[in-house]
Every structure is written in C-alpha cells, then in structure tokens.
Fold these 2 entries.
Entry 1:
Amino acid sequence: MQSPTPQSHAVSIDQLTFQYPGSGRTAVLDIPHWQIERGEQVFLKGPSGSGKTTLLNLLGGILCARSGTLQVLGVNLAQRSARQRDHFRAAHIGVVFQQFNLIPYLSVRDNLLVAAKLGGTTTAAALERSALLFDTLKLDEQLLSEHPTRLSAGQQQRVAIVRALVNAPEILIADEPTSALDSQLRDSFVQHLLALAREWQSTLIFVSHDDSLGGQFQRVTALAEINRSGDKYAD
Amino acid sequence: MLIKIALHSLASRRTTALITVFSIAICLFVLLGIGHIRQEAKHSFSQAVSGVDLIVGPRTGQLNLLLYSVFRLGGATNNIDWHSFQTLAKKPDVAWAIPLSLGDSHRGYPVLGTTDAYFQYFRYGNQQPLGFTEGGPFEQPFDVVIGAEVASQLDYRIGESLILAHGMAATSFSLHRDSPFEVTGILKPTGTPVDRTLHIHLKDLDSIHRDWQSGTRVTSHQHTNSGQEQDLDPDSVTAILIGVNNRLSTFRLQREINRYPDEPLMAILPGVALSELWQLMSWVEKTLGFIALLVLFASLLGLATMLLSTLQQRQREIALLRILGLRPLTLLMLLELEALLLVAAGAVVAVGLLKGALTVAGPMLGERYGLFLSDQIITVTTLNALGLAFVTTFVIALIPAISAYRRGLHSGLENH
C-alpha cells in the first residue's frame, strides 16, 4: 500500500487548501488543480513568503492538508500515518537545500550512508551509485572520507545532489539550491541537476525566486498562478 | 546507525561532552566507592571472628571491647586479673578460653600475647581454624608466630630475630631490646586482623614487662632465658575469648560474668556487637550515599541542560534528518542515546578510577584500619547502582529528548 503506482502522476493536486493551526481562517495555500507528469522538470518560481515552503513540506509529507487531495506518485499522503509518510519521503523523494545539506559531524560517506539507510538502500548499492554520481559530478572520491566543513560550497552542493539521489528517488526537490553558489557555478550546477534527473528518471521540482534560471526548464510555473491565496501570506 | 550518529555528534562537541563525562564519573566513583567499601567492610568485619561465643573484658563499651579484642583498634582501659581468667576458664559451661593481652607492637603491627589455646580454638571466616604456612605454634620462650601480612610486608622468615616495641606507635622509642624474639611460625593468610598480628606467649609478654611500670623501664635486667625458669603466671590480660559447651548456656554465662563479684567485668556476644558496630557505620554510609546520589542527580541535570542547550544549534541538523526520513521518535532515541553514552563513558571512567584507587589505597586501608578490600568491583551492588544511574539518566534525558521530538515534528524545509 506504501508503494506508488507506476502510471500515476508524480504530483497531483485537487482543491488543496492548507492553513497553519491557529492562524485563523486564512489559508496559506489554496490550489484548485496542479499536476506534474512523471519525468517532468518543473521550475517553480515564487518569492519567499508565497507559500512554496509550505507546498514542499506538503509534498514531502512533513505537513498534511486537511482539505482537498494531494497525491504524490499516486499515494494520498494525508491518508498515511506519520511513520509511513516519513518512510515514503525517505525512499521516494530526494531533497537538495540551499545549504546545510550534510550533517557536519559525519564524513561525506557516512552522510550518504545515513540517507541510504533511511531510504532502504543497501550500503553496497549506495556506494556503487555514489561512485557513479561522483564521477559524473567530477567529485574526487577522496572527498568521501572528508567532513563536509572541509568542502567548498560548490562541492557541498554537488555532494548534496549525490545524497539526494542515493536512493534513486522518483522525485527530486531542489529548494533554492543555487543561492549559496556564485554565478559561475550556478549554471553548471543546474545543468548537472537537469542531466542527472533525466538520466535517473527522476521528476525534478526546482524551486527558486531567481527567474534567470528558468530558461533551462521544460516547464516554468509561478506559484502565484496556481495558488489562489496569492502572496499575501508569509510562511 | 544511530549509535554512530550519536558518537560522532558527541565527538563534535568534545569539550562539553568530556566535562560532562568527568562530572558524572566523579559522582559514580563516590557512589560506587561507598557501596564497595561498605560491602567489603561488612564482609571483612563479619569474617574477623567466628565460633567465639563470648568476649570478656573489663567494663567498657561493648564496641570498644570488640574493636580492641578482635580488630586491634584502640586500647583497653583496664585489665582483667589473671585470677579472674582462671576462675572463668574453670566454669563448667566454658569449653575453652583464650586469654588475650595487647599493648605492644612491632613496626606498627600489633603484638598479641596469648596461649596455645589461640591456635587451637580461634576460628575466623566460616569456622575456619588457623593454619600454618611454615613452622608451628610457639614452643620455646620468646618464640613468635607472625601473621601472613607481617611476614610478607616485613619479609620475615622462620628463625628471624625481632625486637618488640612498647606501645602501639609505629616508630616507638621504647623498645624491648633485651628480649629478642624468634619467628617460629607463619600463619596462612586469613583476610582478617590475624594477618597483621604478631603472636607471642602471654608469659613472655609478661616477662618483658616485668621491669616496666607506667610505660617506662625502671630497672635494667637481663632476661636471657630466665623466663623459662621463672614460669610465673602473668598478672593480667586485656580480654578473653570464650567458647561454651552448650550454646544455650551462653546467656546464663554472660549474666554470670557481668555480675562477677571480684572485679567489674563484661561479656559481649560478638555477633550482636558486630551488628551494633555495623549500624554505627551504616549511618555514615547512608549519609554519604545520599549526598553522592544528590550530586549524581545534579550532574545528570547538568547533562540534560547541556543537551537541551545544544538543540537550538542542532535545529538544522534535526530538520535535515527529518527530511531524510528520520522519525521524530528516532530523534528522541538519538538524544537518549547520547545521554546514555555519556553516562556509560562516565561509568567506565568511574570503575577505572575506583580500581586504581583500590590498588593505591587498598594496602594502606588494610594497614591502618584493618579493612581488607577486594578489588573485585563488579558485584551485584555496583551493578544495581549503575543500573539505577542509567534509569535515572533515561528519565532525566527525556527532557531534551522530548524537546528534540517536538522540534522534529515541526521541522521541515522552513528550517533551512
């Protein structure tokens, strides 16, 4: 029951509204309809405070909407227990953040293995996968035994991609992943991300307020277009 | 995996972690040390005398009598007349009577004047008689039988000649130089004050004191072998150990001795006196134990505070772990694990410290207080104490652990 159905949409939203408890009747999100196909590469743009973090937390099953439906890979997360949602997120969704993608006191290898363990990937498979990814991303294998703090910002973000893909997730979410990078690194990072998502057949949801990056994506969606609540409510 | 995360997490906060471990270690050291000494003291005390039904001495406190007659601690305030000893020994209820005379020493070890009855009737531990590693009881005048520890510490062998000192000080200035004694027997180790005692015949003890009054020598006199010829009865003894024919007559005999008409005497039951001694000690031990517990509690609260205060810095780490799929309950366990690992490290350090302290201070305690501590620390009592420490830690660590759980529940992408 936990397993996603192969023919379903990556994301399918219907009449979804969400409000934080205690925030009165005003909804942060009010999305009548939104779908993402499997394998699509979506650039979701919106300034901070437009509800995108809330949307991502809903997609990851950290938050649960009480009205409307949100299906991820055909699974209605709201109907799952908290434990099942955590498990689902670990196995099927990879996330790359703006920064702090790695636990600072664990070596890069251990960071990857923790993600693999939580996602149900064996150590052998995880190491094999990360070796491939390290190669593609032009990362030195020796970085595996380093601690994240000794890596440059660019290296950290590339390792973050490796970590996000270590469980070969169907969905890859990148939340402002380039904010910490300078403009030279930014484009190559995005290209790597797009290429890898295609290669690994992951649906990519790339969230950024930086419109200049949108050109490289098949589909660009402004959150304001799909969210009727607009950008009045900060989250 | 969780243990690895916890270990690395603690390692990244090395300084605070080490200080916490150390404060816990000190508390556990005190707690375990008190428990161990208590247990060992109780064991060692109860082993010191067995099979003796009554201890008779001049009127004094029952503890005082027990302490000097059995443990060679403190001194007698008065003596028993030799005549009284003979009278008591001849009573029909009395199976055997061992006279004890104390007061002299040799290099800090007590000298006990007694008779052959001592080697025949004295029992220790579980009704065990005294045995000889070498030699045997005294036969000639000025023979001395030494305890196992005396032999090993002073490296004495059979045939060795030694001089006794007047009084109990380890560095006494008044020596019985005129009367050298010869070692004729070395007793097997008993783990009781017997090991630390030099035994000589009562008559010899008496004869070396013949010229002494009030602790000083009044005339110069050569003893040589005169003791053999004189064969005089001693004037007095300090205590008498008595075994009865029939256990049932013990109380009657005790009453009789307490009402002895010729001089004020008292008879005590060693078991009762031991338990009274024990109660006296247990008050101290309980107080110390209670203080140690309070301090342990305080240092565990310190541990909880430490973990709680780091949670703020660990907010992003918590959010990251949550995104990776770690359950809030697992976060709770992670914090618990960190706390328990710190206490476990503290326990290891404490046990090591205790072991070291026993190795260093053990012989000294035996020498000064007749307390023989085994270095076997891992006993049911210590395990109980450690178990209690771990349970308390678990409960106290719930404070930061639940806080981590709560943070975990609401941690997501917004915390980045």
Entry 2:
Amino acid sequence: MSRRMRLGAVSVASVVLAVLLWYLASDVWKLAPSVMLPSPVTVWNRFIWMLGNPYQGSTLMAHLWASLQVVVAGWIIAVLVGVPLGVLFGWNRRMREYLEPLFNLIRPIPPIAWTPFALLWFGITPGARIFVVVMAAFAPCVINAYEAVRGVDPALIGAARVAGASRMTTLRGVVVPTALPRILIGTNLALTGAWMTLVAAELLAAQAGIGYMMQIARSAFQADIIMVGMILIGLLGILMTFLLKFAFRRVLVWDGASREH
Amino acid sequence: MSTDTIAMAEVTAHKRTVPTALTRGAVAIVALLAAWFVFGDLLGLIPARTLPPLTEVVSTAGRLVVEPYAGQTLFGHLGMSLTRWGLGILMAVVIGVPLGLIMGWFRVADAVVSPLFNALRSIPPLAWIPLAILWMGTGLVTEVTLVFIAAFPPMVINAYHGARGIDSQIVWAARTSGAGATRQLVQVVVPTELPQLISGLRVALGNGLMAVIAAELVSADSGLGFLIIRGQQDFQPDLIVVGMLTIAVIGLIADTVLILITRPLLRWRNTDDRH
C-alpha cells in the first residue's frame, strides 16, 4: 500500500471514528439529554420526517426554497451593481479617487449589522433579507472586479490602444475578457458570504427559511432540527460553489490561462 | 487585504497624485454629509424613520457617551463587544496556530484532522448561533465561543500553509547547526511563517467581528450588536447609525493597528525579497 493510500485510509477512519463517537456519546453513554445532543440516527430520522411533514408552516424543502430564492435574488442584484462598479474603479482613476474612501468607510461593517435597518425599512419581509444579502455580496464583487482590472497587463492595453482601439473598445474587447476569470471568482466568493449572512438574518427577520426554522427549533429545544439545518446549510453552500464553478468553466472555455491554474 | 493593496499600489504607482486622491476622497465624503444635512435636516425630504437628520445623529452620539441606553453607555457597549471579540480571537490564536503547525508538520496529523476540520468548516460560523445558545444559554461564554468558531479556521489554515511552505533546507541548516526541536520551532519556523500568520489574523479579526455582532443581534443584553437591534425595536434609527459607525470605526482601527504593529516584524522579510 502506498503512503498516499495509507494516509487516505487514516482520513476515512478518522471521520468514521468521529461519527461513531457522536453515536456512542449520545445514544449509548447518554452524556447529555437527547434534546441537547441528539444522536446521528435521530438527526437522520428527523431529516426524513421533515421532508414529508411541515414544521412551522413549511416542509423542509419549502424552507430551503424560501432561503434559496432570497439568496439568489440578492446575489444577482449585487453582481449586476457591484461588478460594473468594480470595473469602473479599476479602469477610471478619477472615479476611484472620489468613491473609494466612501466605500472603505462602509466596508468594515459586517453585512449582518444592516439587519436592524433592513427591519426598520422593510419590516419582516423577503425584501429586508434581500437587502442584507445584497450588502453581503456587494463588497466581494466590487473588490475582485477592481483587482482583476488592475491586474490586466498594461502592455495588452497599450497594444490595443496603439492598434487604434478607443478606450471603450479596449475596455470591452481586452480588459474585461482578460479580467473575467478573477471577476467570476469574486462573484463566487460573494455567494458564499451572502449565504451565511442570509441564514443569520433569517434568525431575526423571517417567517420561513432555514435560519427561521433553526431559530424556532432553538426556542423549542429541538437540537435535532437545528442540526438538520446546519448540515443542509453546509451541503448547500458546497453545492452552490460547485455549480457556479462548473458554469463558469463553460463560460471561460476559450480562456486557456484559467484552465492551467 | 484589498484596501491596503489598493492604497499601497496607489502610493507606489502614482506618488504625485496622492494629494489629489486625498482631496477627492475628502470632497466625496464632505459632499455626502452636506447632502445628508441639506436634504435631511434643512429641507426635511428624508423621512426620519428612513434616515434621521445628521444633527440628530451627532447629538445622539454625544448623549450616548454619557447617558446609558439599554443598560450601558456607548463605551460600555463598546467594551462588552471588544471583550468578547478579543477573548474569542485570543482562543483562536492559542489553539488554532499550534494545531495548524502540527497539521502542516506531521503528515499523519494532517490525514487525521483535515477531513474533520474541512467538514466542520463547511458549516458557516453564523449557522452555529442557534446551537450555541441552546447548549450554553446566553452570556459571555456563548459569544466568545462563536467568535472562536469564526476566527479559528483562518488561523489553522494559514499556520498550516505556512508550515507546509517552509523551505526544508532552512530547517535542516538549523538542525545541523545544533538547534534543538524547540529552537527550530521558535527561531526558524515561526519567524518564517509570520507573514502568513498575520494575514490569517487579519481574516480572523474580520470574521470575529462579524460573529460578535451577529451573536449580539440574536441574543445578548449588551454590546454594539445589541445596541443597534434595540434601536430598531425602539424605532430609534439614530441609535442604529451611531452603533453602525462605531462598529465601522473599531473594524478600521483594528485592521490599521495590526498593519502598523506587524510592519516592523516583517521588515527583514521585505529586504530579503530584494535579493
């Protein structure tokens, strides 16, 4: 057996052992009451139960669907506004010098801190959550588009200009296509941040959604439901990142450089 | 990372334009404040529920410094948030850095810990809030734990990559010169990976601030996150603005202080790069 395979076996054993310990601690040794520490079996059974039975007005799929709609809507708005703004920052120095200090003033505020204003302005509506998601996804879109444009080799821009391309044509034909891989990475990071922020916002301002479901379960001492929520949030986060990467690879099929990486 | 790279690139690339850049930034900020004052305070075109007048925000900030609101003055809330933030970060550094070093140094430790670490890390830190409250109730322990959960992964990952990236020849050189295991660690490994640890700490600080504010929004009886959610419940948008600006300021200060403190520590490395 090669060293690599042995290490792989150690990794598998480690995960199996961790789940086994969880099972022993909860179901066999009963280290904590099952409302606090449900066993993996209980969590799985709860997951199956929630697929068919509504909890707080919605089945599990309906809660997920409520969350996904909000995160996708907010993310699309953030991409449509943030990416062009970042490109503009990178391309036009004057614009950057005027707006960057304002942007940097707001940026250290964690996006979740916009929730009180979202509630004040929109009440407990999907609009409030979409607003918080936009605030979370906006900065990564702007920063990565900005750095992508700044990272374009000036020689490429010079060549296009010397060949007679206008500034606008250079931007559209040279700068944006060259910067695109990095811009897309930024939108993917934005989605990850937005997903986490949404779940937290749903703890405060929702009547459906996976975070809302967990918040109710917390006050009802149903740790199994909270764990179903946590696992699903993790899996969906991975799935969304993966789907975007897959979609972007098709967009960037012409781009040899990004495939080498 | 990005703010500074933006600022640094600006300084090196266009030294002469720095004064114009500063002026333009100041012009934009003053223009925004002026617009707020004219449309909000003078013309009353912005509903106070949407955005309170500028003068009201300023007077609220002044009042909050001396008069307690929701149990604490502004500095009281600030102190609570800073305590939770600082303790959580400290825990993440003290536990995360050694763990990352060990994972980077010993392949077996990597194989044992990495899959568990990555599985747990896929759950976003803020998704731990309900479970943390269910297990530990509300209080200092819960909030510090949540900060720890948010700040721990970047510390581990950066210590790990730092240790993996160390040139083994340097370590061999130390070993052949007679350095023991501890000396190798303290005098070779840690200084070499310091830049990586510092960038990990910057991410950890940002994540930790997010976690402390989120935890205080959901359940706490003090802190800046609690202040702004109380402001919303009492329909006092001026309190929300003051709280959010305070959060922005402590985020900015922490980041700036970290850069200033660590710059001398990294100087030897910068000169090294020139060779």
